[in-house]
Amino acid sequence: MGCGYPIVDYNALCQGKVRELSLDTDGELIGVPTAHVWGERDDKWGPAAAQLAKLCRSSCKSVYQHQGGHEVPGSGAMGREAVARTVNVMRRAIETATTLQ
Prior knowledge:
The chain has 101 residues and is of the alpha+beta class. The protein contains 4 helices and 2 strands. The chain has helices spanning 10-14, 23-26, 46-54, 79-100; strands at 34-39, 61-66.
């Protein structure tokens, strides 16, 4: 859960090149259940988090973009709804993982 760092092509990296993976070029590469939570005002890591989420298979990913920045929603400024939605994203990922076994 949380923000992600841009994912690079391992084979290209072994050849000394850096190529970021993208949905358009590479498709949904990650097929394990995932939970993605990031803030819409996280200018530094938010775009990478969104890109990472796009690389995950739609059928087994859960996504929530909250109104904050680079923080995990707490009961403070974002309120209980943000906490509940974050917990639900995690719960869906866990439930998806347990049904795949």
